[in-house]
Amino acid sequence: MRTTSAILSKIFTRRFYIDNTGFFLVLFYALFGVVNGANLINYHKALMLGFLGNYSFLFLVLLLWTAYVLKCTGFILKTFQLQGYDFLFSTMGSIDKPARIRTWFLLHTGIYMPVLVYAGIALLVAIQQHYYIPAAIIVVLNIANCIWPLTLYERKLAQPDIIFFTGHLQRWINRHFTKPPVLFFLYELFTNFPRRIVSTKLFSAAILWLTFLVMTRGEYFDLRGLQLGVMVSVLAHMQLMVHHRAFDDTYLNFMENLPVSLFTHYLRLIGVYVIMFLPEMIIITVNAYTKTSAVGLITVFCTALSLLILFRSMLFFPKMNPEVHVRYTMLTSFIVLFMILGHYEWPAILLLQAASAIIFFKKYRSYEPYIEPES
Amino acid sequence: MSDPVIALRAVKKSYQDVPILDIDRLELPAGIYWLQGENGAGKTTCMKVMAGLIPFKGEILLNGNVSSREHPVQFRRLINYAEAEPLYPSFLTGRDLLELYLHTKGGNREEIGDIGGRLGVDIFVNNPVSSYSSGMLKKLSLLLAFTGNPALILLDEPLITIDTRALTVLYDLIRTYSAKGVSFCITSHQPLDAEELTVTGTLKVAHKNITLN
Question: Which keywords accompany this UniProt record (chain B) (predicted)?
Fold first, then answer.
């Protein structure tokens, strides 16, 4: 017969490692794959001595471990929110408190284990090399990281409606701040699909970083080169646009009964993508403000936003499935690319804006999700 | 005779080329209507069409002169709809939705607060809808249907999932709003309590058409 711990371990611990296989593969490659096997122990010993002997480096390592514990805690808390996992409230709530705390501890340390193992080895090295203060800091932080999440799990069990870490803060925000419709989709991404938005943003940032790197290495700066990078960065957002349409179709149908003008709906659409592209605009500004004028920066931002809004507006054609969407976005990108290369940036922007406005105002009210007929 | 509260003119609705509704002409004077029909007859589609939630061919007029095509914003101000199985983004709170409705549909904030209290929505209004039961969601959607200054409120299966106390409040609200001149169109597989509500007429959805008895 299976014990309660074994069943809960299957629900939390095993699922955590399966869901994060990609993350651990990258992590293991970074820690063990980049060094020759013969030098692996020396490499890690040097790494440990590095952070044991330097408080700034140690602070960075502790920060990374704490980021990992936040990931673990978020995973357990989010499991309670998943469809089909409601039974956890009644079952775990029925366990005696001391036994439940032990269960939480086992589950939490089970997924926090990679850090505990590495920290344990670092601790042995610290003692061996007489780094007693860093050793004490490592012990205190890891004990704290094993204990404080347990209080959140207990609170979650008592207050099922709490999504974020601090219940009081969330309740205060809910009472005093009304979410505007322009933020609905971003809330959806950050609360229900954080991995999707974070990976898209990291990928997009990497594209921009590469764009600036290529230009720096070549010791030149060409606005057209930057616009090319920005176009690729926009294309990295296509998955989010398809998700945006599905979100609107599924959850925002009620908004069609609100007395809101088409123009306001259009402004909301523009607002969503301005906010979504804000991190990229900051990256571009920081890297390019000394190399181009304000007009140059505005041209780049307008190109990016015009493409984003047109690509999203295209999805108001009900039969535009992701495959067809890719074809049209690529075709549009090629046309815009040649216009940019010919220094016709502003005519391109105006054409993109006109096209997206025409599609939106013509299609929005008549749009209805298309269901593919079974073949 | 006064203008009908709602008039449907050559309204046609199809899903993937399958016709669901084909209503040549239907005019309803002010009152309370019970919309009946078998499962799949097109009751919910009809309500969604009336509420402007889904596109359709033809035209709907409210109060004789507000057209679904020519005055889409004003049209939506005059018609409210509560879904049979409401679905909202999980992260929104009841208050988020209520504020959105009050900002767009308008209406008396105090009155809505009072209705919210009577339905028991005020207890959970600051919690995200992901934590609501089906009954709580239903109460919220009913409350939202009473916001603004509608001429017609469409209630899709309002009697299911809510508790008996809320049901009594709902009947009272329908009577009160009806006395103020608001019309109702209600679908329900359960019979409407004759002691609680006097129905002006019954509407039958069948063979893609709606007939008034």
Answer: ATP-binding, Nucleotide-binding, Transport
Per-residue pLDDT tens digits for A299-357: 999 999 999 999 999 999 999 999 999 999 999 999 999 999 999 999 999 999 999 99
A258 interaction partners in chain B (CB closer than 8 Å):
76, 100-101, 104-105
Residue B1 lies in a domain: no
How many domains does the structure of chain B reveal? 1
Asked whether the beta carbons of residue B91 and residue A260 sit closer than 8 angstroms, the reply is no
- The token pair that represents A116 in the structure block: 């505990």
Contact B76 A257 (CB under 8 A): yes
In this predicted model, what pLDDT tens digit does every residue of B126-163 receive, in sequence order? 888 988 889 999 999 999 999 999 999 999 999 999 99
Which residues of chain B lie closer than 8 angstroms to A265, CB-CB?
none
Alpha-carbon distance B33 to B112, whole Å? 23
Q: CATH number of the domain that B55 lies in?
A: 3.40.50.300
Query: For chain B, what percentages of helix, strand and coil (3-state, to nearest 5) are there?
Result: 35, 30, 40
Phi and psi for A360 in degrees, rounded to 5?
A: -60, -50
- Contact criterion met (CB < 8 Å) for B126 and A368: no
pTM of the shown model: 0.78
According to DSSP, the β-strands at B152-156 and B79-82 are parallel
How would you write A139-195 as a 3-class SS string?
HHHHHHHHHHHHHHHHHHHHCCCCCCCCHHHHHHHHHHCCCCHHHHHHHHHHHHCHH
Q: How far is Cα A19 from Cα B206, in angstroms, rounded to an integer?
A: 50
Show residues of chain A in contact with B16, CB under 8 Å: 370-371, 373
